Amino acid sequence: MTVYLPIAELSVNIFIILGMGAAVGFLSGMFGVGGGFLITPLLIFYNIPPVVAVATGANQVVASSISGAITHFRRGTLDMKLGSVLLVGGLAGATAGVWVFSWLRRIGQLDLFISLLYVVLLSSIGALMLQESVRAMRRAKNNNPLPIKRPGQHNWVHRLPLKMRFKKSKIYLSAIPIVGLGFGIGVLTSIMGVGGGFIMVPAMIYLLRIPTNVVVGTSLFQIIFVTAYTTMVQAATNYSVDIVLATILMVAGVIGAQYGVRVGQKLRGEQLRALLALLVLAVGIRLAVGLIVTPDDVYSVAVGGMSY
């Protein structure tokens, strides 16, 4: 069964799109990531124009993130105050990112830039996360666990001014790195169509020393509003959000996220990080191969910033 996408200007198999949305929603709920780092490359692999894939992928992230965040809110694993501070930086970053996105599209370098950015970020972050996860699992197997680092333990981040107390997370931390992290994620959301959870979750755990039990829900909370804002701005500025594609992805993503949260609660932290690292690496390698291997059709036609 096929459906026509008016903005992407092509017909797709609805069941494949539903499968993509459900899978990404499942991963969103399990890992606390928006899933945009996966759905955008998947759409590109399925020949959706990158301009449409980025903007519409961000829209799908909204639905799956809402579903997962509600579940975490009910379980008391969401820090609203911390999420709000992240959101301040995220909205500012998203605004800057949309401007960069429009500029890259005007000069005709958007597709290449998106692919290169995905390869660099996913490969480096995936490798670092996998290395740390393997070490953690080896320590657990040998009954030699890493000494527990208390929330707020000193490093350079905790010596910064403008500190705030986050009672839910039980930390006393400067707002500067939190806003900065949110800003960076906002820029990536606009340019890459990602929620940014694959960067935000490790950064909150390892850099800011935020307790793992509130990281996932808080990450999803911030992702909801930044991706929703990005979607609206992309639709108004670049006219690149395909509502038909977004609706299909959203329906499937919401259902998948509920099951992902349940599975994620049954796995240990190092297991979750290892699985996420492998997934991130796989997507990065696949994109790198696509940049290196000579395509079957060497020539393409670009109309209005969209490649065919």
TrEMBL record:
One of its GO terms (cellular component) is plasma membrane. InterPro entries: TM_pro_TauE-like, TSUP/Inactive_protease-like. Pfam families: TauE. Its main location: membrane. It is a multi-pass membrane protein. The keyword NADP does not apply. It is found in: Cell membrane; Membrane. Keywords: Cell membrane, Membrane, Transmembrane, Transmembrane helix. The chain crosses the membrane at residues 12-45, 85-104, 110-130, 169-185, 215-237, 243-261, 273-293. The keyword Transmembrane applies. It comes from the Bacteria. PANTHER family: MEMBRANE TRANSPORTER PROTEIN MJ0441-RELATED (PTHR43701), MEMBRANE TRANSPORTER PROTEIN YTNM-RELATED (PTHR43701:SF12). Belongs to the 4-toluene sulfonate uptake permease (TSUP) (TC 2.A.102) family. This is Probable membrane transporter protein. The lineage of its organism: Bacteria, Pseudomonadati, Pseudomonadota, Alphaproteobacteria, Hyphomicrobiales.
